[in-house]
Amino acid sequence: MHAAPIPQDAAPIIAADRAHVWHHLSQHKPYETTDPRVFVEGKGMRLWDATGREFLDATSGGVWTVNLGYGRADIARAVQEQLLRLPYYAGAAGTVPGARYAEALIAKMPGLARVYYSNSGSEANEKVYKMVRQISHRHHGGRKGKILFRERDYHGTTIAALATSGQAQRAEQYGPFPDGFVSVPHCLEYRAQWDVSNYGERAADAIEEVILREGPDSIGCLVLEPITAGGGVIVPPAGYWEKVSHICRKYNILLHLDEVVCGLGRTGAWFGYQHYGIQPDFVTMAKGVASGYAAISCTVTTEAVFELFKDTPTDPLCHFRDISTFGGCTAGPAAALETLRIIEDEGLLENTTRMGERLLANLRDLAERHTVIGDVRGKGLFCGAELVADRRTKEPLAEAKVQAVVADCAAQGVLIGATNRSIPGLNTTLCLAPALIASEAEIDRITDAIDAALTRLTA
Ligand code: PLP
């Protein structure tokens, strides 16, 4: 059993953080009166901050990343050995872990063939957008370069990735954005846009309507999250994926699945799309690839797409003229290879499925007793509970109250998340994404904390 680390002298660390660190996604005014939290150490699903406080982390590092938990000596060792042998080489040459990881990954992704390395989910997605644009220029006279994205989805933080943000406020004040990115309706049945029984098929039809309006020959690609993460933990309804896949084939539109959150086991399959029997043309992944132990992202595609960049002696611009400097770091693929091995050796896909069912069942049980829970959704260890002020009207719960639930859980020593604050009125889903190693006791402790917080909220 791991003992709690000796608390460091927290004051100078917190002072340095307060004085010099610009935190992600944060308003800093609150730090004038409350201390910023600084984490020091982790083991399994437990974390300790600089004051020595212990937390059970149901967020996998805040943003669905540390899928195998903290303090994994096996991953650290694999990275150390690789760094001592060869830390880096980039450009037109490979490395041993790069080659080995690509081979191991492709073995999990039938129908796909090529892996392009970079450092973040945003970057991995931008690689696809660039590939699609280049295919359009080289093979369609520059006319098939539009990229469709879906309301509520998120694909990253760079300007082009934000141009495909289905969460309006994420993009607000960062424009102007490049042309050629077009949104399609979301598919969340709880917030239904159509009064039909076959909701999944209807939501897919809505994509076809956009395609016909824009002109099928102008569209190169459709990017979707298999399960929308920050936009509300949205599991598409039955029939959706089959029809979306059919529509893409019908109009020769490449299907790009952003598995930055879902990939590498989070939903109980290697990839979210593999629950639905569909075949994508591009898959991007980042967060869980190396479980947060190193920065790595992958853009994976088919041999058919790769062939479209085939050398032409008369065309010096034919190849993919892109580089990601730190795509040459070997720590990433070394950590990723070890991550893959651990998921397999420790049966973590199976554990994720079992613990995910328990988490979902516990949340449904809470919904029986707390009318503030309007909807419960999820797959594997990726679950959400949407909170409402009124079950009948589905009026979203006030953001301050949602944050009060998150804060109450933290006060009980359990870290949970809530969906993105940037969707006004629709930011009220509690997000639960424990590590894939979670035990029954840990799952129950998470939902017990939520139970207590909701009880206090409505007392
Ligand atoms: N795609 C999805 C679905 C995400 O949730 C995120 C980040 O949260 C990204 C892409 C961007 O990844 P990164 O922050 O590594 O650039």
Automatic annotation (TrEMBL):
Cofactor(s) listed in the protein's UniProt record: pyridoxal 5'-phosphate
CDD domains membership: OAT_like (cd00610)
SUPFAM superfamilies tied to this protein: PLP-dependent transferases
Keyword Transferase in annotation: yes
Classification via Pfam families: Aminotran_3
Taxonomic superkingdom: Bacteria
Matches recorded under InterPro entries: Aminotrans_3, Aminotrans_3_PPA_site, PyrdxlP-dep_Trfase, PyrdxlP-dep_Trfase_major, PyrdxlP-dep_Trfase_small
Family per similarity comment: Belongs to the class-III pyridoxal-phosphate-dependent aminotransferase family.
Name of the protein described by the UniProt record: Taurine-pyruvate aminotransferase
Biological source species: Rhodobacter viridis
